[in-house]
Amino acid sequence: MAFPLFWMAIPFAGGIWLGSVLGLEAGAWAAAAGLFLTAAWILVGLKKTAAAFGLSLAVCAALGAGLFVLADGRYEANALRRLPLSTYAEFTGTLLRSPGRGLDRDSLTLRVQSVQVLGRTEPARGVVRISVPHSSEFPGRIGYSTGDRLAVSAQVVSPREYHNFGEPFSRMYLKTLGLHVQASTKSPLLVRQERPGKALDPRRLVSRLRQAFQRALENGFPAARTQDAISPEGAVLEALILGERGRMDPDTTRALQRTGLFHLFAISGAHIGIISFLVFALLKVFRLRPRSSYAVLLVFLLFYALLVEGRSSVIRAVVMASVYIVGKLLWKDVHVLNTLGLSALLILIVNPFQLFDAGFQLTFTATLGILLFFPHLKKRLPRLPFKISDMFGLSLAAQAAVLPIIARSFHRVIFSGLLLNLLGIPLVGLIMAAGYVFLPLSLAARCLAKPAAAALAFLVRAFLASSRLLDGIPFLSYRIPTPPLPVVLAYFAGLLALLWPSRYRIGRRAGTAVGLAAFLLLVIYPFPASVRELTVTFLDVGQGDSVLVEFPGRAKMLVDGGGIPVGTFDVGENVVSPFLWDKGIRRLDLLVLTHAHPDHFFGLEAVAGNFRLGEFWESSVPPPEARYDRLKRALAGTRIRRVARGETFARGGVEVEVLSPPAVPAEGAPVENDASIVLRLRFGRTAVLLTGDIGAAVEAELLEAGLDLRSQVLKSPHHGSNSSSSAAFLERVRPETVVISVGRGNAYNLPHPEILERYRAFGVRVFRTDLDGAVEIRSDGLAIRCRTDAEGRASAGTASPPTGSR
């Protein structure tokens, strides 16, 4: 067989997936592997080679499944996983890599040796990542190096898990990174060095060199604002050269993702390809023999992997390149598919969780697409100067292979990258070449660094400008809901049909037709998102509000989009939008902002940019504020209405009535909780009352106005604060079910115990998004039914938080 390792890698990866879904013990998989292996040997003796080969692949699958189960068991049994959330602890351990740099905080990754909790010190082995916010009391940056032994006082924090009827992304993400727990400290002053690492430790030496390079970038590309350490151009260079993307401007990151050029910042195959080309070009000047050039390149790549400190994408790319180079050094002929298979096996054996990382999937699928399809494309493309046709063919082969993965993982269809790569890849290659000259030059001759930095900044600005050349053509990059799995499988089947030998002409044509149909279904997404009942889902967005209303038929309304006041995490992009896409939603008929507080409207900017909108409702307009201005820009072309009591909206037999505020507030006045839009949804004999963050004063005003407030479902005003939910208000509403939208471990200690007791006194069943996850209410016009994310996790046999009061 020409490439057995490739065929072994496929069932091995499939086995890892099976191990994650079937729930069998490792012993069962080991027994299955032994059984398959015995049967394969028997078939070899009977000269049934084809059947023996099939069973050998089954052995690989069983081994992959068993490996996953063992790795998952070890991970979950780690002592650090048992630390209660919000616990303050002192972690003592060795710094695994240089401090990670961010816009508003740095991070430390420690290999823990011991943990002190409540005065007791216990040994522990595992990895913790600790967030360290920037502080005016500590104006410098943390300068510790890999190998230093540190002690850090920090609070155990929950990963950003949002339970919205799906597997939380962060759980598997932490496993792919090898992190057992996350923590946050209040100040850099709570980090102290117990002893430095070994002076001659290669990792420590490279860490110090890396930090010297970062200081050189900060000096060469100073920030315009005093609170920033580096300019936007310097942050882009830091990402391209050192793999540190934490200080890149979020808008720049989103723009590169939109245009399909962000892969150049992942330090993956394309990045390592550029580095290899630059090294070979340099070695060619010295007329080094190919074999010697491969050896030098191998050493350089290993050094580079140390310099960027083992980011997952780097490890994947370097492993793939190194396996190929070692093969070229040892053997005359090396089949690239064999190299690809061996690389995948090595990575998955070390960390089977990598299979579930989108970066792993994209790297290997893109590489496989290039290997399989580029030779055929090269024969058919016209020959253009400067190898333009080759670059286009490589880009087309890679993009065709990863199209469904990008659509399912990132809900985006990108065609612009096919053209922008033609300019972007050479520019990035030039920037990287100049950057590798600039860094040592800045350390050796600072007088020459300033003009070199100016030239580099110009190149970076030129690259960023080139990435925006096609921004005015929306059909080249757009967002789509999650494509159905059968469509994805049909697409890949169609791609593989293109490789069938010409003698299978009929099957090849049929497969190609199926693949083309799947491609059209994938990029057009003609599947309507419709429901038969009124469906109201209170999303888990942490400490904030976001409510999706699906009317009978196809109409949709979103009330608020959540938001986090500090940091760069975008709830609208990473929580609300994926939930809507997973429901197949492309259009929102009505987008409502109850009031412009961060935990309600910060997420709406991404929602407005990701979905087609009918109307946007708001009541108050705040004083000039940057995030609100960005939301309004995202709403360009959408009809905007300021609403007050008496406004109505009807879809699918459901009447939506605005009950508050009684009049439109003055524009530019400070936004108050009591200015929240209050909506009552009436469907047949049932009603749902959405109250925003109103307090007792507005509740009293609603009572005095004599409005019909009776509702079976009440969204608890102001996240269960004791300033709301007065007894008189509850007496008028007479809810059967109350939903409290509140964040886990929030700093406000909400919901208030007094309010929970009041709900119990009224005999109301209470759901909480911090405990129950998302809460879905369905109504057929006669009665309501409820389900929660926690119930789904419990029925699936996974751990779930305790439910709230019922």
Secondary structure elements and their pairing?
Elements: H1 4-22, H2 26-45, H3 49-77, E1 88-95, E2 105-117, E3 120-133, E4 149-157, H4 169-177, E5 181-184, E6 191-195, H5 202-220, H6 232-242, H7 250-259, H8 269-285, H9 290-307, H10 312-330, H11 336-350, H12 358-380, H13 388-410, E7 412-414, H14 416-444, H15 446-466, E8 477-479, H16 485-497, H17 505-524, E9 534-538, E10 547-550, E11 556-559, H18 571-582, E12 587-592, H19 598-601, H20 604-610, E13 612-618, H21 626-634, E14 639-642, E15 648-651, E16 654-660, E17 678-683, E18 686-690, H22 696-704, E19 713-715, H23 727-733, E20 737-740, H24 753-761, E21 765-768, H25 769-772, E22 775-779, E23 784-788, H26 789-795
Parallel strand pairs: 3-5, 11-12, 12-13, 13-14, 18-19, 19-20, 20-21
Antiparallel strand pairs: 1-2, 1-4, 2-3, 4-5, 4-6, 7-8, 9-10, 9-22, 10-11, 15-16, 16-17, 17-18, 22-23
Helix pairs in contact: 1-3, 1-11, 2-3, 5-6, 5-14, 6-15, 8-9, 8-14, 9-10, 10-11, 11-12, 12-13, 13-14, 13-16, 14-15, 16-17, 18-20, 20-21
